[in-house]
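Q: What structure does this chain adopt?
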Amino acid sequence: MKRTVTGAALAAGALAATALAFAPSAAAVTPTTATVTASCGIFGGGAATLTATQSGTSATLTLTSSAITTPLALSANSIASTLTMANSTGSNVVFSGTVNPAMAAGSAVTVGPLPGTVASGDSLDFYGGSLKMVIFGVTVTCTSSAAQSPGPFVF
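A:
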């Protein structure tokens, strides 16, 4: 009985090791958060945080900032956002959508998660890119004059 149990345990361990060896590796963006300084016209400007996630070639970016505020109350999913990220390894990558929480007048701005498609090795930075938000037909463009910190998102 003891030999059968030991043999079964060894077989299960070997199967688990084989499964891990052939499992696809999970794609992970690094870093997952970065800080930028954005200038957004009437919305203001200052420090903003970008948060990135990745699943294969699909990725999302979310921008949040208490320094960038909305002059009017906005309902959920009412901002059409296009976040263009400069890619040091190829063409710029665009993340777009209409995802945002409801925000009272004067509230901190949050847009995203905005979906986009990335390739392995893409190195994306907000510096050299932009965030365009269309609110009630008015386009607000945010740009940065310096690279994001601690560095670009690498997918």
